[in-house]
Design brief:
alpha+beta, Alpha-Beta Plaits, four-stranded antiparallel beta sheet, elongated, DUF503 domain-containing protein, DUF503
Length: 96
């Protein structure tokens, strides 16, 4: 079993309030959950910042190529979002 964990830092240029940021974030997370089944995603940092967010994403699979493929596809999906910019994406794999 392999667990892939990604820490993704995003910049939202549009929001001018936490409420606007939450709306954009909620829509993004719903699109991710609709397109990528069996993926866990959560906001892990940047809670009080209007234009910055850090997401934690995890994928579990039987082998590393599968997990790597899923995470790569997911990160590409996020990067194509027009309402945000990806600042960084750190990926780690844990083998069990």
């Amino acid at each position: 079993m392999v667990v892939g964990v990604a820490r993704v830092e995003l910049y939202f240029p549009e929001p001018n309030s936490l409420k606007a940021k939450r709306q954009i974030l909620r829509a993004l997370m719903q699109r991710i959950e609709a397109n990528f089944k069996r993926v866990s995603i959560a906001e892990v940092d940047g809670h009080d910042l209007w234009q910055r967010i850090v997401l934690g994403i995890s994928v579990v699979g039987k082998d590393r190529p599968f997990v790597d493929s899923r995470l790569t596809t997911l990160l590409d999906f996020i990067q194509k979002e027009s309402a945000l910019e990806m600042i960084s994406a750190d990926v780690e794999y844990l083998d069990y």
